[in-house]
Amino acid sequence: MQVVRITPRGYCYGVVDAMKLVRQVAEDPKTRKPIFVLGLIVHNRHAVEELDRYGVVSLDGENRLELIEQVHEGTVVFTAHGVSEAVRRRAAEKGLDVVDATCPDVTKTHDLIRNLAQDGYTILYIGRRGHPEPEGAMGEAPDHVHLIETVEDAQDLDLNGKKLAVVTQTTLSRWDTDATIQELRRRYPHIEVFNEICLATQLRQEAAVHQAENCDLVIVVGDTRSNNSNRLVQVVREQAGRPAYLVDGVHEIDPAWLEGKRTVGVTAGSSTPSPITREVIQYLEQYPAGASADPVRA
Ligand code: SF4
Questions:
Q1: Mind giving me the DSSP string for the chain?
Q2: If you take atom 8 of ligand 1, which residue's CA is the nearest one?
């Protein structure tokens, strides 16, 4: 099978730095133990298992305010997705040491929301309900921010006459948000738009769409909970018109997808460790082009 290694793919700068920081903290004898990560450091099982080996406890759950109530001593790590001011306050009240692995791009969005709120804006935040990033970002100015997933969500709000701004979650796709933003502009011509989709996300999506054009299908390596991995599948299907599948590892590849196929593209979400993607690439490279069965596994 010919494999197109879609580039760039995999770990972004925010995830690389977050993983490095937690490893350093875990190895530092001065760190107060135990060490808890508030949520999964990134949405990837393999990355979380790596931190397990350092003795770091990952608290699984998306609501950071609930999770912090489970921590009574030691050190707490804020993940790359960021946390709200309320979580920071609670950590201080509990006397916990804090390690902040928030991605600088997420921090930039937090600062933006705080400044807009101070300037009297009502903010529409386009994001995924239940994902930790909106929770943290909206927590900067809870009385001024409305979470919307689609333009229909905004239609119930009475926004006329208000100073309006729209801000996006960092890991969405511009194709998705463009439609919502266009509709918001039509309804509220004075709305100010702040596209906060991060560069790492944009570059991975654009590469996947362009390089998928030469492929029969695309395999995206990533966790089902990873928003940016799911968006990669979506943009390949919707923008490149190619079949795309999300797999957590080589064991999830269905041979039926490969039947009769000659060229497969491989990409990976920003939270997927490279060794997992490498295994997938090696498996596919050994797979005979145009095969109708699964000779590698047989
Ligand atoms: Fe930061 Fe973007 Fe990576 Fe998220 S996907 S950690 S915002 S660089």
A1: -EEEE-SS-S--HHHHHHHHHHHHHHH-TTSPSSEEEES-SSS-HHHHHHHHTTTPEEE--S-HHHHHTT--SSEEEE-TT---HHHHHHHHHTT-EEEE---HHHHHHHHHHHHHHHTT-EEEEE--TT-HHHHHHHTTSTTTEEEESSHHHHHTS--TTS-EEEEE-TTS-HHHHHHHHHHHHHH-TT-EEE----HHHHHHHHHHHHHHTT-SEEEEE--TT-HHHHHHHHHIIIII---EEEESSGGG--HHHHTT--EEEEEE-TT--HHHHHHHHHHHHHSPTT-SS-TTT-
A2: 14
What CATH topology corresponds to 105-194?
Cobalt-precorrin-4 Transmethylase; domain 1 (3.40.1010)
Catalytic residue chosen out of the listed positions 133, 135, 140, 196: 133
List of the chain residues with pLDDT < 50? 297-298
The atom of ligand 1 lying closest to the CA of 14 is: 6
Å from CA of 76 to ligand 1 middle: 20
pLDDT at 296: 52
| pLDDT the model gives residue 172 | 92
Confidence at residue 89, expressed as pLDDT on a 0 to 100 scale: 97
Per the annotation, the verdict on 133 as an active-site residue is: yes
- C-alpha of residue 293 to centroid of ligand 1, in Å: 38
CATH architecture, range 2-10+199-285: 3-Layer(aba) Sandwich (3.40)
Residue 199 Cα to ligand 1 middle (Å): 8
Is ligand 1 within 6 A of the CB of residue 105?
yes
pLDDT of residue 293: 55
